[in-house]
Write a structure and sequence with these properties.
By secondary structure, the protein is an alpha/beta fold. Helices cover 25% and strands 28% of the residues. Strands 1, 4, 7, 8, 10, 13, 14 and 15 form an eight-stranded mixed sheet that branches. The protein is globular. The model has no long low-confidence stretch (mean pLDDT 89).
Length: 265
């Protein structure tokens, strides 16, 4: 199955950082977050990707056009032929990547609709955001989607806890729970699976927002299901989120790193 990744937003909450690079290219370790997302899908056997880009699309195109270079040791003999000799690859990840420019200011729904031609004849596809990581069981997600027979599945997650929970009896604190991550309402964590027919709910208009009318209508028509994931999920909305991802990677405790050691980090 092909994996569509929304990689066109501005990432305005990152201030000056995204003045220079698009949000999906912000590095976690030595590689951009979008690479980590792709690497995760590939660990489950899904190696074909369509990146729906917009803001600073040229940087994403440049990265993937040079991925082989970035993933290999090499020698250049400038005193001789000047040709490049590649040695052992640092990473055996060899995806098939389509980088599609879907407009500078296009919203999420418009971006998905505009890449429809790259889906080929596939009757279903994965879709996710270019700024979120998880340890979701993609095999279980796909099985869930195929079993219910509806047009769409989104992954429901608990948002990462930011503060501890307090319970009071009058002014007396009777319970203090430090950052429990499985309380409250679940939210849309992305990691969608859609049938091709779901694209009929979308338009190429740049104002089409996937999370507004399209998903609302699909839910109203009984065509949207939720796959509950109670494990790790982390979006990268703020510098604090980025620091959390970076620290998990540095500590060797990144829950999304399910591929073998000895590859690029």
């Amino acid at each position: 199955m092909k994996v569509v990744i929304l990689a066109g937003g501005y990432g305005t909450r990152f201030g000056k950082l995204t003045d220079f690079i698009p949000k999906p290219m912000i590095p976690v370790g030595s590689m951009p977050i979008v690479w980590h997302i792709m690497r995760y899908y590939a660990a489950f056997g899904h190696n074909e990707f369509i990146l729906a880009t917009g803001y600073k699309a040229e940087m994403i195109k440049e990265f993937f056009s040079n991925l082989n270079l970035l993933s290999s040791d090499f020698t250049v003999d400038y005193g001789g032929s000047g040709q490049m000799e590649f040695h052992s690859r640092l990473d055996e990840f060899r995806p098939k990547v389509t980088v599609a420019y879907t407009g500078q200011d296009t919203m999420t729904g418009g971006r998905v609709k505009r890449i429809e031609k790259y889906l080929g004849s596939d009757d279903s596809f994965f879709l996710t955001y270019g700024d979120g990581l998880s340890n979701i069981d993609l095999d279980a997600l796909l099985k869930f989607h195929r079993n219910h027979g509806k047009l769409g599945t989104l992954t429901a997650v608990y948002p990462p806890p930011r503060f501890g929970d307090l319970k009071f009896d009058g002014d007396r604190i009777v319970e203090f729970s430090e950052k429990q991550g499985t309380k409250g309402a679940m939210v849309n964590g992305g990691f969608y699976v859609f049938q091709r027919q779901a694209l009929e709910y979308l338009s190429e208009d740049r104002s089409c927002i996937l999370e507004k009318k399209p998903l609302e209508q699909m839910a109203l028509h009984g065509q949207l299901m939720g796959f509950r994931h109670e494990g790790y999920w982390q979006c990268m909305d703020t510098t604090r989120d980025l620091e959390s991802l970076q620290q998990s990677w540095i500590d060797g405790k990144a829950p999304w790193k399910v591929w073998k050691d000895g590859q690029a980090d």
